[in-house]
């Protein structure tokens, strides 16, 4: 259910794995994504199960309609509209409000400044990382009083640079914008390391307390991987303040 959980000075970080939910194949078991073809009732039940295991009220978890962009929305509570806005980052200074990011190979980025009381969640796939979703999230936090030097950053399970094969031209295009993302597969072909790019960007922004999950979604049977399975579920990362 919860693969990894951490509390840093009252800021909570959590990442799910694929087990402990009610979804049937190919979404088994804990699919938290509402736009992947799974039974909506199963997704709702899974979101409740995950929230409860984290001690959260499911109604106080804010989700995104992720579109591989670089827009960040500031939230103070659950969405007032029925339609979830198309953003790839959320920021809040509201205590007890959890921000959630869905992934299945992309990099889930959780950020918190426990002193300022500001948290953010971001979805960084290859396009979002290049478009600057990570600096946009840090910017949004800074405008709410966060200091990059105090920001704690945790990235969750994602496809690793030894598995994320891309055409040579795409690697060149990505590396021109973010050299740290230049990678090679374990079988010697061009690849992109999105998490390395995310961490290089955070480093340049002055975010020093960074940790990267060692889990590669594509190599792990305990995690959803879009590149491996195409029809599959979504993992979630959650960040919130006491
Ligand atoms: Zn891998």
Characterize the structure shown:
With 242 residues, the protein is α+β, with helices and mostly antiparallel strands. The chain has a single domain, classed as CNF1/YfiH-like putative cysteine hydrolases. The protein has helices at 40-53, 126-131, 133-143, 168-177, 194-204, 226-229, and strands at 2-8, 11-16, 61-62, 72-74, 89-92, 98-103, 107-113, 118-124, 152-155, 182-184, 190-192, 209-212, 235-241. The chain has a six-stranded mixed β-sheet with strand order 4-5-8-7-9-12. Strand 1 (2-8) and strand 2 (11-16) form a beta hairpin. The model has no long low-confidence stretch (mean pLDDT 97). The chain binds zinc ion (ZN). Zinc ion binds at residues 159-160, 162-163, 216, 218-219.
Strand and helix layout:
Blueprint: E1 2-8, E2 11-16, H1 40-53, E3 61-62, E4 72-74, E5 89-92, E6 98-103, E7 107-113, E8 118-124, H2 126-131, H3 133-143, E9 152-155, H4 168-177, E10 182-184, E11 190-192, H5 194-204, E12 209-212, H6 226-229, E13 235-241
Parallel strand pairs: 3-6, 4-5, 9-12
Antiparallel strand pairs: 1-2, 2-13, 5-8, 6-13, 7-8, 7-9, 10-11
Bound molecules: zinc ion (ZN).
Detail the poorly predicted runs. none
Q: Domain count, please report it.
A: 1
Q: Spell out the CATH superfamily.
A: CNF1/YfiH-like putative cysteine hydrolases
User: Rg from C-alpha positions?
Assistant: 17 Å
Number of strands: 13
Oligomer kind = single chain
Strand order of the largest sheet: 4-5-8-7-9-12
Mean pLDDT: 97
CATH architectural name: 4-Layer Sandwich
Bound molecules: zinc ion
The CATH topology, please?
Answer: CNF1/YfiH-like putative cysteine hydrolases
Percent in strands: 25-35%
Number of DSSP helical runs: 6
Instruction: Tell me the structural class.
Output: alpha+beta
**Alpha carbon gap, first and last residue:** 21 Å
Order of helices and strands: EEHEEEEEEHHEHEEHEHE
Biggest sheet, open or closed, and with what strands and sense? Answer: 6 strands, mixed
Portion in helices: 10-25%
CATH class category label: Alpha Beta
Morphology: globular
